[in-house]
Amino acid sequence: MEISSKENTHFFSNNTILPVDRSSFKSESSASKEKQSCCGGIKIFLGALSFVYFAKALSGSYLKSTITQIERRFDIPSSLVGVIDGSFEIGNLLIIILVSYFGAKLHRPRIIGAGCLIMSAGTFLIAMPQFFMGRRYRYERFPSTINSTVSISPCLQDKSQTPLSALEKSQAKINAGCEKEAGSSMWIYVLLGNLLRGIGETPIQPLGIAYIDDYAVEENAALYIGCVQTVAIIGPIFGFLLGSLCAKLYVDIGFVDLASVPISPKDVQWVGAWWLGYLIAGVISILAGIPFWFLPKHLPKPESRKDSSTSSEHSKFIIEESKDQGTSYQQQVKLAEMAKFLPSLKNLFGNPVYILYLCASIIQFNSLIGMVTYKPKYIEQQYGQTSSKTNFVIGLINIPAVAFGIFSGGLIMKKFRIGVLGAAKLSLGSSFFGYLLLLSLFAMGCENSHVAGLTVSYHGTELVSDHEPELFSECNSGCWCSKSDWDPICGEDGVTYVSACLAGCRASSGGGKSTVFFNCSCVGTIESSQSSSAVVGPCQKGNECPKMFLYFLVISVITSYTLSVGGTPGYILLLRCIKPHLKSFALGIYTLAIRVLAGIPAPVYFGVAIDTTCLKWGTKRCGGRGACRLYDSSALRYVYLGLTLVLGTVSIFFSVAVLWVLRKRSSPQDETLSANGERGACGTKSRKDNFVNSDQLIQSTYWPEKETRL
């Protein structure tokens, strides 16, 4: 020990940045200047990094809020939207190894600044299709609802009722649109832009946090990292609120006369100004990256960090190898990274606690990522809410609950001095009760909207879910209608009809949103065959639906909080049961596995599953299937919540296995001592090592894509 202490003293004295006199005593003035320089520089970096975390969290959450808008704008299914969402993780993975290895050797602040520029370029690229497409958003509407000067009966009993010139012009426009549309798939720009976002975001977290840890005073490092993570939670709140604001604005605002737009935000075909938020987020990313170009490569290290020793953390689960006492900690890290990669990998995957917790995390993140990605769609389709209100609710209610849950988990760990075994129990309990609460959401759904020919027959009887759509009936047999159209109207009988033509309407008055259809042969009560009228737009959901939506919000908030409480204890469990010199490697493998096996595939197969519940698909201008117009509410609820719960249940079984291994490897004496605060389940040697110190506690509040987990 004496030899080691002398060597450490000699090492730090040789690397001291401040001038030292020959008697190795610093003057008070030089020490004061060093302290001021160090504190000033690190605080500027802290402020800049916090702003970057805010910017990347805002743009990431804004993408989640525009999922349904992008789907409608480009007429693509949910499965393809899932691929677009997962492209961020793909971009991140492309350069994560290069950034992690070479980033620490280069100018870290400037690399972060370059990442911000790439991230902003990707954000701008996502918005570009709005300007590249060359045509405005087209929705399926009967001509009389678009202020057409040509008077056309909705129920076209004969083609001759429509002026030939009008038909020719309409067909010419469609053909022209097909020529343009056939050669372009503008959603690819969104995918590439999100890919660039992932590339640009890569250096921010590893290089930024490491820079703070290197140059901050040791007792302040935890506070600084905690501040950064807190700001990262604020970003998604503003991201979803921005999404709420943009969803209220029409997609072509500034390009068309809004008074002539016949659809409203409540219409399933409504598309908000999704591109506007990306322009705002791109500007914020540029501004966030500017300070990093003026920050130094190195900051003076505080004196307290020069005298600090390495961690003495040990675990009874870790079989310590014989080590040369003259080898420094830095040399051990280099040895593990460069000369012993495969043995280290074998050692890591030979740790049953690590591998079981990794499996539990992968499956749980599959559940959470899929749930969060399609949560806006679920609320819109299940409860009939607008995109604007959905984003507002998620941003203002759900995300603060997640933040409070993360904070509560860390506070519980610190206040009750919970060891590793206790952390495993808390993480398991959080997941168990969270998914148990999620189970109650099965009873909080709305019934299917009454849509003639899709969910109910034209005689008013309900159709079974696997029944083939019957859009044609005796009441509209005399009309020349297309079953591929989606131009819903609400009849006086409270039933939604796919189009005015399929409702048998033979006359209309007014224009735009105030259009009223008359003499609709299919609209009427079962008792009376008397025809009635209808108005533009689908009918509202049942009277019980608003109440169910309120119950859903309450349970959703409590569930978000409960699941988030287990985040910090789980991360502590991951840190405490691996060898100290393998921590960075273990966390890297953990993050890589979460991104590859959860972040990329989860949105895709969740989207595929959700697509199976579609009752009415839209049709593209040139033919082919577009975006879904109407979902089976009951089937959507069972698929969305069922898939989430099945994955969550499997992850709980792995968490139980983790707890079983920990109990098996800890003696009853260890558990008793752990309760008294002397020794933990991981068999640490001292009271200090057993408890979670504040530095680890606050650093542990990060996990991949935490800011978007609701």
TrEMBL record:
<comment type="similarity">
    <text>Belongs to the organo anion transporter (TC 2.A.60) family.</text>
</comment>
<feature type="transmembrane region" description="Helical">
    <location>
        <begin position="424"/>
        <end position="444"/>
    </location>
</feature>
<dbReference type="GO" id="GO:0015125">
    <property type="term" value="F:bile acid transmembrane transporter activity"/>
</dbReference>
<dbReference type="InterPro" id="IPR002350">
    <property type="entry name" value="Kazal_dom"/>
</dbReference>
<keyword id="KW-1015">Disulfide bond</keyword>
<feature type="transmembrane region" description="Helical">
    <location>
        <begin position="354"/>
        <end position="372"/>
    </location>
</feature>
<dbReference type="InterPro" id="IPR036259">
    <property type="entry name" value="MFS_trans_sf"/>
</dbReference>
<feature type="transmembrane region" description="Helical">
    <location>
        <begin position="40"/>
        <end position="59"/>
    </location>
</feature>
<dbReference type="GO" id="GO:0015347">
    <property type="term" value="F:sodium-independent organic anion transmembrane transporter activity"/>
</dbReference>
<dbReference type="Pfam" id="PF07648">
    <property type="entry name" value="Kazal_2"/>
</dbReference>
<feature type="domain" description="Major facilitator superfamily (MFS) profile">
    <location>
        <begin position="45"/>
        <end position="666"/>
    </location>
</feature>
<protein>
    <recommendedName>
        <fullName>Solute carrier organic anion transporter family member</fullName>
    </recommendedName>
</protein>
<feature type="domain" description="Kazal-like">
    <location>
        <begin position="469"/>
        <end position="524"/>
    </location>
</feature>
<keyword id="KW-1133">Transmembrane helix</keyword>
<dbReference type="Pfam" id="PF03137">
    <property type="entry name" value="OATP"/>
</dbReference>
<dbReference type="GO" id="GO:0006811">
    <property type="term" value="P:monoatomic ion transport"/>
</dbReference>
<dbReference type="InterPro" id="IPR004156">
    <property type="entry name" value="OATP"/>
</dbReference>
<keyword id="KW-0812">Transmembrane</keyword>
<keyword id="KW-0813">Transport</keyword>
<keyword id="KW-0406">Ion transport</keyword>
<feature type="transmembrane region" description="Helical">
    <location>
        <begin position="548"/>
        <end position="575"/>
    </location>
</feature>
<keyword id="KW-0445">Lipid transport</keyword>
<dbReference type="InterPro" id="IPR020846">
    <property type="entry name" value="MFS_dom"/>
</dbReference>
<dbReference type="GO" id="GO:0016323">
    <property type="term" value="C:basolateral plasma membrane"/>
</dbReference>
<feature type="transmembrane region" description="Helical">
    <location>
        <begin position="110"/>
        <end position="132"/>
    </location>
</feature>
<keyword id="KW-0325">Glycoprotein</keyword>
<feature type="transmembrane region" description="Helical">
    <location>
        <begin position="271"/>
        <end position="295"/>
    </location>
</feature>
<dbReference type="InterPro" id="IPR036058">
    <property type="entry name" value="Kazal_dom_sf"/>
</dbReference>
<keyword id="KW-0472">Membrane</keyword>
<feature type="transmembrane region" description="Helical">
    <location>
        <begin position="221"/>
        <end position="251"/>
    </location>
</feature>
<keyword id="KW-1003">Cell membrane</keyword>
<dbReference type="GO" id="GO:0043252">
    <property type="term" value="P:sodium-independent organic anion transport"/>
</dbReference>
<feature type="transmembrane region" description="Helical">
    <location>
        <begin position="80"/>
        <end position="104"/>
    </location>
</feature>
<feature type="transmembrane region" description="Helical">
    <location>
        <begin position="392"/>
        <end position="412"/>
    </location>
</feature>
<feature type="transmembrane region" description="Helical">
    <location>
        <begin position="639"/>
        <end position="662"/>
    </location>
</feature>
<feature type="transmembrane region" description="Helical">
    <location>
        <begin position="587"/>
        <end position="610"/>
    </location>
</feature>
